[in-house]
Amino acid sequence: MAAAAAAAVGGPQPPQAEVPAPGLALDKAATAAHLKAALSRPDNRAGAEELQALLERVLSAERPLAAAADGEEAAAAGGGGGPGAAEEEALEWCKCLLAGGGGYDEFCAAVRAYDPAALCGLVWTANFVAYRCRTCGISPCMSLCAECFHQGDHTGHDFNMFRSQAGGACDCGDSNVMRESGFCKRHQIKSSSNIPCVPKDLLMMSEFVLPRFIFCLIQYLREGYNEPAADVPSEKDLNKVLQLLEPQISFLEDLTKMGGAMRSVLTQVLTNQQNYKDLTSGLGENACARKSHEKYLIALKSSGLTYPEDKLVYGIQEPSAGASTLAVQGFASAAGTLGQLDSSDEEDQDGSQGLGKRKRVKLSSNTKDQSIMDVLKHKSFLEELLFWTIKYEFPQKMVTFLLNMLPDQEYKVAFTKTFVQHYAFIMKTLKKSHESDTMSNRIVHISVQLFSNEELARQVTEECQLLDIMVTVLLYMMESCLIKSELQDEENSLHVVVNCGEALLKNNTYWPLVSDFINILSHQSVAKRFLEDHGLLVTWMNFVSFFQGMNLNKRELNEHVEFESQTYYAAFAAELEACAQPMWGLLSHCKVRETQEYTRNVVRYCLEALQDWFDAINFVDEPAPNQVTFHLPLHRYYAMFLSKAVKCQELDLDSVLPDQEMLMKLMIHPLQIQASLAEIHSNMWVRNGLQIKGQAMTYVQSHFCNSMIDPDIYLLQVCASRLDPDYFISSVFERFKVVDLLTMASQHQNTVLDAEHERSMLEGALTFLVILLSLRLHLGMSDDEILRAEMVAQLCMNDRTHSSLLDLIPENPNPKSGIIPGSYSFESVLSAVADFKAPVFEPGGSMQQGMYTPKAEVWDHEFDPVMVILRTVYRRDVQSAMDRYTAFLKQSGKFPGNPWPPYKKRTPLHPSYKGLMRLLHCKTLHIVLFTLLYKILMDHQNLSEHVLCMVLYLIELGLENSAEEESDEEASACGPERCHDSWFPGSNLVSNMRHFINYVRVRVPETAPEVKRDSLASTSSDSLGSLQNSGTAQVFSLVAERRKKFQEIINRNSSEANQVVRPKTSSKWSAPGSAPQLTTAILEIKESILSLLIKLHHKLSGKQNSYYPPWLDDIEILIQPEIPKYSHGDGITAVERILLKAALQSRMNKRIIEEICRKVTPPVPPKKITAAEKKTLDKEERRQKARERQQKLLAEFASRQKSFMETAMDVDSPESDIPMEITTAEPQVSEAVYDCVICGQSGPSSEDRPTGLVVLLQASSVLGQCRDNVEPKKLPISEEEQIYPWDTCAAVHDVRLSLLQRYFKDSSCLLAVSIGWEGGVYVQTCGHTLHIDCHKSYMESLRNDQVLQGFSVDKGEFTCPLCRQFANSVLPCYPGSNVENNLWQRPSNKSIKDLIKEVEELQGRPGAFPSETNLSKEMESVMKDIKNTTQKKYRDYSKTPGSPDNDFLFMYSVARTNLELELIHRGGNLCSGGASAAGKRSCLNQLFHVLALHMRLYSIDSEYNPWRKLTQLLEEMSSQLGNEEQQPEVPILYHDVTSLLLIQILMMPQPLHKDHFTCIVKVLFTLLYTQGLVALSVKCNEEDRSAWKHTGALKKNTCDAEKSYEVLLSFVISELSKGKLYHEEGTQECATIIPVAWSPESMEKYLQEFCLPFLRITSLLQHHLFGEDLPSCQEEEEFSVLSSCLGLLPTFYQTEHPFISASCLDWPVPAFDIISQWCFEINSFTERHAEQGKALLIQESKWKLPHLLQLPENYNTIFQYYHRKTCSVCTKVPKDPAVCLVCGTFVCLKGLCCKQQSYCECVLHSQNCGAGTGIFLLINASVIIIIRGHRFCLWGSVYLDAHGEEDRDLRRGKPLYICKERYKVLEQQWISHTFDHINKRWGPHYNGL
Fold this sequence. Notes:
Helix content is 50%, strand content 6%.
């Protein structure tokens, strides 16, 4: 079929169309059907031509870009207007034709039915959330889409969710990349069998139409491309073209999604070479086609570097000729395999083809033709499509289309080959690109799909020279940024290195290519080819050598460097990615014996490259001073392959080692790095700026150490084990520049080091030796032991979270592989060495995460200070580890003092490295140790405890690793004769320890004390005699020693004998004129190492003769030497341990120790202190004293502050401070006294100098969130679950108010309810007081102080000067008594009637605002603050804006809000009793004064005062109803009783009498009770009502009828029956009333519950106004306790009967009269509005406590639903979705799409939902963010992983689970309004969240 189609397409094209012109106007479907029929005939020629012509017309390429639509074309396009329309039309035609006349959608469905694909292949772009399961993955790059992941079974696997950076595709169903057990349900079936064969005619049209369509697309691409000019990036033009092509490419993409059948057609079309040839040759008569072909040729030329003059334009520099010839040598063999070598740059004259050849990459001008990057022809659509994709810099749509095709196997192979063929071109485009980041991601998006598949990678490697291409391309890429190396010999160096400042390295542009390379090297078959190919290895080593010695640091000696370059980031990244990771990849295939050959190859070429490097930089034996490079990748390749060879391949080490001279060269540079590290830490490089410290840290940092410092140390260990030990040791001290310090003389001169650096450099040198000798990472430890050691070291420094531990432990193979060495053993090792500490919650404290801490036995046996020192990035971590170790020893009682680092036994050495231990047994080291011990004993300067510690450590290492015990006899026999020429007789430390050294000749400055002493001695003859007897005194110079050895080694290599040793030029060692003349002096020493150790013991313990050989008491010790008592301790313990080991190793030593101890040691001579030393000592002492003084002062200050805080907390707020004094007749009134925390004075608050409480005012909607049902609301996690706010307290109150306002007079409505459920103002205080004038000056000073900490002074915000709590206003304290004029102590005996009168009169008096005092001004200003705290919409409810009723309502509602919130903080009831939960921190008393003062300004007209309605019978009821036209007042039974209470009390002049308070409460209780009865009567049904009416009526005339609820209820029912309230009980009503069987008990319970909220608020109010304590009680007796506390219960009430709520009633006027008066109002309203009348009567009084939404257990459920959810406002998927945890609203964080008047959506929502407080869960980060007003803070996460840690931004992607404790803490902070106090890190959000 395809052939037929091709023939048809390529046939002679008839000049005019076969389809008659009018036919075009016919229906497209008909045409399509007709054509399909024509094509289905056996002879389909005519049909094919017809179709051809039609397509020619429809798909004319000129249309979209050059919108020249002349008439005929416009007609053909269906009269479309602009270019857009024409394109649409063309697409419509294609769809129609494909479907062959049927519907396109049906066609799609039909094709899908034949989809045999067993692969998922879903392609995604950046930021898509995918999964990776390491348990199921074969390739480390394996990834799954969320759907396949959740459909498969991965329980217990090591998986994580990740956000794709470059894009990817789902591998489900591909067994090359993942194990089949992980496939999801859909892709498990191998479905090829049961899918029917595709019917022939279904896709027939597609095979004809698609070639033309794709050709048309390619023509557009050609048309649209213009070579960018040299300076102007042309992204804009390219994007324009791409936008125009959007529909076409999308159409192709849709085709690929139709499944396998369609994909295979597309594959045919894309790879068919014949089609391509016929359509694209520019030979047709069609001018347009010719033009497009020319464009294509131009594009080819420009990218193929065909003409030299192009080069300037396209900015690709020529690499230096020298460098690239190397590459070419390696490739001579491989050249020519990619196609014919064709040197002609002209066009090929082949008629059909006319194609331009293009040069790939020219490595250099002289190797033009043999270059591996050869001429290349495009032979198919696929190839040209990829070419344009690259040209257009990988547009996302194209990439997706090309990837969507991958499930087709045939396509996959073809595409991979095409991709490889264009590889060099990709690299060039990438280098030129301005958007290299985006482009890199797109490249990797493609390549990772192709190269992760081993089978495919192998095939391409074999058929297309993939490896050659990759290596050459990398080499070529780096060649463009080479510079001359300045290492060593600057002038004559021939070495070139990459320049780390170039964009290529700085921006990591090479990343995609290196990443591909690492990816293919992970396949064994590919890596084998690489390791076997010598040419490739040579080229690769050549590539690596570009990095050898890059980023050279030169030490600044004079000025501080002015510009700190940050190139070191680039350098370290480049070495890690371009060198180390490919190395780890190769190493992973060299694991078994059979692979020895590979290692030999690598090592061989590596050594060759190193030799070339040494020659190129002119290196002989001395490194140039004051320069260091941290980058020696060649050394590290060499080291790592050696290590692998010995460890895994059983290779003989010596067979791969070079000669001695090469080893000496090899060790120099790594050693230089170690010395430089010590210099950097000694601050010798301080003038190079911080970046040099950064390099030193990066070098040892966990991601780099195993590719940097570890191989370096290993290489040094190898060199040390093979070189002469004396040479090595002296080299070390010379490199560390401390040779001059190693003298017995008390003074010396160091020509290369300043005195202040000597000590730390000496410590550095010794520490390095200890590390070198004790580290076994590559010398015999198994992988598990290494893992354990690394883990212990990290845990000893600090407790760690699981993820930081994973991060800190160096991964062994290349990190891309994602498989940590024995990642299965990671968990087991962790559980073996550490204990898990679960996360802790201190409320108000920081949120801790789950941590791992070392087990006790780890501290006991495994703590290894050497490993810790090696792995610490910061020196403070070493200290931290030692502190923790000390703490452990103290705690476990093992050692009380300050311990020294413990000595740890080492893993046995691998036999190949036994030579390393010779370092410990060489005379040079022994002389150094002896000298240092002596110097320490003699207290010479510049020695520290650390030095001693390291010296002892080295001695102990030597004893542990000594040769077999030598026989004491022979040693003693030949002892004397041997010791003429040198210090020590042999090289074994054990025997050298006991050797006495008598005299030493030293060179000292003439000023030294030794010189004077010696001149005296030489006069006396006997001393001279003794001198001669002892043989000459020992002289020693390290440097001379080293020179000598070097000469020997050089001469030994006779072959090299002719090489001249460069004379030393530097004048370091002999500086004749520079200093005081050196003279020789002879010192009498007469010590051995053993005797020095014993004296040291005395010195450390501060006692004479403190050392007593333990074996004299207990001979057992020698038999069983491992004694726990010696394993931990300080220097004394260490000395004892060493002496014991020395005695164990040889009987001779044992004897000598005993002898030394027997001699009574003479006291150590008092040391002479020189003036200079004295000065430094004095300085030290003075410093010490100053420090102590400071400590003392601080302690004193702390204790003073503490006591101050305690007292300050006591004088918090005025009530309940001073016990009530009940004294004689006249009550004593004590004025409240306040302390000002600013000026510190105490005194009362007065009119002219008022004191105020520090308060924080905040708007709150917490109350509004109470709901009436117990079931907590859940966060919606599916479309069905929605949260409707209609059952919240705020909504219910809103509805009620608007209902009242509909029917009643506005001013009266505003007195009948409270507002503030939403946006109420909550006032809280820290309890501290200050003078208001002091506060003003404090605010001034804050305003001038520019360093503000997260609050805005202009908004009046500040922090309390004493406790630093956040505040924003000051609430004035009303002058007056402490507790309202204790009058309430004597209950008056006035009757309730009199009291009612008094109350009415007091309310009637208009309250004049007090005269203009400071106090009244402050009261006004704080009232303004309170109003401004909340938004206008939360205080204006009146229909007439700005009416005074509004303010009135607002003010008493503020009181209500604060009381209600306090009730919630107490848990919703008052059972707990006691003082208020906030203790003395309450400010309600002061708040009441301020509110009352303002409320009294508004007098309620006495006509309307509800008090009259409550306490008087009004005569003419009917008259009220007369005036119909104006709205009636709210009936009293609709009033909210608690609001009435607050109105009544705030209308009274303050301070209030207790009697009046009780009176108001009693009156209001009668109303409340009646409301309860009415509600009850409405709730029950008709029969119940009539029954109750009846029973109650019988008892009406009993004595206490007014206190019997039955009587009252029956009366209420009979009164209300007169109206229409109970009527309309038609059908629809029954549903709302739940048929409850009302028993007397349940009715009593209902009434009590109805009244309780009022009683609670009233009791709280009484507690605050009169300072009475609240009694505590059981829940069931709360009602009775509160009512008696409020004085509602008569005192003589008997408790025997069951308690009846009605007994609290105390009617001010006859009950029945007043009730009928109240009911009359209701009846007159229900005449017209029965429905509403009823609704208003049933009030919901049982509100549950407010809660945040309940969250699901697993975070994934939230994430999967919300991260793809579209925003309801802008219908896009937000970039940062968030969800409100209070109401469940979904919002866009920072989304500009939903911005309204400059407020972003979260801020807006926080104002609407929480009146300025918002709690949002950020879906993509799992973090909670709090918005409070104009500030915000990150609160933390309530979801933790299995190891108890947060995963902010979901970086790790492990499963997260809710942490209920944390969520509780969050909810608590929300309810108690303490976000501002507890969270510290607030910042302004500028409305941008």
